[in-house]
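Thread: assembly with ligand

MN 10:42: here's the input set. Chains plus the small molecule as SMILES. Want everything predicted jointly, not piecewise.
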Amino acid sequence: MTPWECLTFEWFGALFSDERILNGIWNSILVGFGTVILSVSMGLAGALMLTQIWPKLRATYYTVIIAPILIPGVVLGISTLVFWDRINRMLGLGADSFLSNGLFLTIIGQSTFIASYCMLVLVARLQRYDIALTEAALDLGATHAQAFRKVLLPFMKPAIASAAVLAFLASFENYNTTTFTFGEYPTLTIELAQKVRYGITPAISALAFIIVVLTVFAALANEANLRRKELVAKARKEATVEELSSGRIRMPGFLSSNWAAVALVVVACATVVVVGTATVYSPQQCIADVQEQKRLETEERINELRRQRDLRRQQQQEAEQGNAAEPNQSQPTGNNSGFGNVFAPSALSGEEEEASEAEEAPSGNNSGFGNVFDPGSLNSGQDN
Amino acid sequence: MSAGVGVDLENLWIRFGDFVAVRDANVNINGGDFFSFLGPSGCGKTTILRAVSGFLEPSDGRVLIGGNNMKGIGPNKRPTALIFQNLALFPLMKIWENITFSMEIRGASAKERRKRADELLDMIALPGQGDKLPSELSGGQRQRVAIARALCAEPDVLLLDEPLSALDLKLRQHMRTELREIQQRVGITFIYITHDQGEALTMSDNIAVMKAGVIDQIADGKTIYNDPSTAFAASFVGENNVFRGKVKRVMGNEALIETNRSGDLVARISSANQGRMKEGEDAMMFIRPEAFTLAPEGASGDHFVTAKVNHEEFEGNAFNIFMEGEGGKELKVSIPNLGQSFEDHTGQNITLEYETNNAVCVPAGELAAE
Ligand SMILES: Nc1ncnc2c1ncn2[C@@H]1O[C@H](COP(=O)(O)OP(=O)(O)OP(=O)(O)O)[C@@H](O)[C@H]1O
Ligand SMILES: [Mg+2]
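BT 11:07: finished. Tokens for the full assembly:
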């Protein structure tokens, strides 16, 4: 049985009633936010440093700061673990101290390389920043902190947002660094990895579906936002002074020029329809129907096998005895004649095995797939 | 206007590593003056301005504003406002927010700021444009916004770094008058930087002519134009014809120069160089194109120049005659068009006459590269 034979949403339910997955998602979100805050601030500091540093040192500094991207995540994970463990011991703290906390270590470990990504994003924007703007702010009486907050930070905002999204996604999907550092806080990727070791269940597909939909939604929302801003900027540029001061600018229809948004709306409608019909229709009934159909198919196959076997036996008997054997031989059990067993023992047993296997099939728990589709198996994690 | 806050530079040196950007500058700028620094690109004008506004510490010497030494005082604590070469308007702030940024820093309420912004927008003739973004204004409008933003900070000294250089010619000429008007209205000291001698001459009370980090001459526009103290000042400010030679004889405040091509010519010694021109030394003399008149053929003497005409052009208000000059450079003569008849002289030798007072000589030196 394949997932598309019976449309059901029970796997979403199964997913959301799974303690470990939910806990993993929660941990991932915690780690994600921690990493976003840490990496974006480190990335911003690194990017600012790059523009201020003595030009002769710039290339070296850049190489050093970008190196974590090139280092395998596994190495970063182990190093983080070892490094903070050393510090922990140097400070004479116990194994349960803050420095050996899984959350702390994971955030630090991930940030070591995610901060570099953030820095790259931020540097690109910072290169378009005119340092004269900061000087202008200073000249007009602002302190350095005020100039940073009121002029540089607003300018960097779009890049900071991109860097934050990037950092969050990178943190969310990270496995190989986290696997060394998670401690008591297994993230979603860790939980999934442990689960798929015992086979893939549709609950995982359901999770994948949710992640894909969320990602697409976020990307589309971002795109739509950018587009809206562009349109507003364009409208403002074309607007006359009176229009501007009376605030009478009408925003051009968002949908008119955004095909992605149109597609999204269509998909959303389709989903609503499917959900509406799918809930009135019972998946159990569907599964029973499909299984009934399979049982019938199997029975047919057994009958066919029996017919073939009888035919063969008949031919054998004809060949042996030279005269016509009983034409309506239909007993499945072998000892219908004194010679039958003697002449075809292996063939007979093989056929019987096959038949018995086939006969088992309709009894509901098809050994090939059945367990996998059982939501209960998620927790039990039993091997099939 | 009552005397505003003056600015003094005393023995100001600014070095970048081994490179000397400003060499021993001594300037006294009176309060309420419109003072210009005029010089070619890269001569250190911006550097001086940055030292005044506090972005650069002098390597040596002092900057005094209103008589107070500014050493160790940051740009946000000085009573100056700088209008940057590229304006540096805050791109994400609306015009009114840009203009009143200094008030925001001082903690003024949005209502106060709006009110002040409207006043300033009226002053710069951009009423009702406060809600636009800088990118939505034209170059000239942005220019005026930058001025309003600087004025809103109520500085004692306004520093302007080639603010008109990005504008087209017509707008530039319009803004010159406007800037001068604004300065007279607010009555504060303006320090203006330009490489355009026209701007400097039309707007300034006083001008400092700079060359490669050195200030050659400080004087009002008329003096600089008529009585330059160096060869550079003579050739940089306005058009000038140069004659090289040696001093043959000094007669009071006049000198007879034995020129390389045009025989012995007499010229006035510029006031800064009186008593400093020695017989036998190299000298340069300068005569403006408009200082020549056509002389009868065959006239000769120590205030006549004869040369072959290369080509001529009619410029509307003047006839321009280009003659063979020194070192491959043409000698330009400009005869005002007063409706007289004017025949073509191309290829002929003609003789020109000038009044001694209109020729000025200085010790030989560097010319402005053209
Ligand atoms: N930070 C710096 N480091 C090293 N040299 C500098 C620095 N700033 C300026 N200079 C040098 O000092 C000299 C004067 O520069 P400045 O910017 O004052 O020129 P300017 O007169 O304003 O020219 P322009 O008219 O082109 O703006 C230039 O040769 C420049 O290369
Ligand atoms: Mg400059």
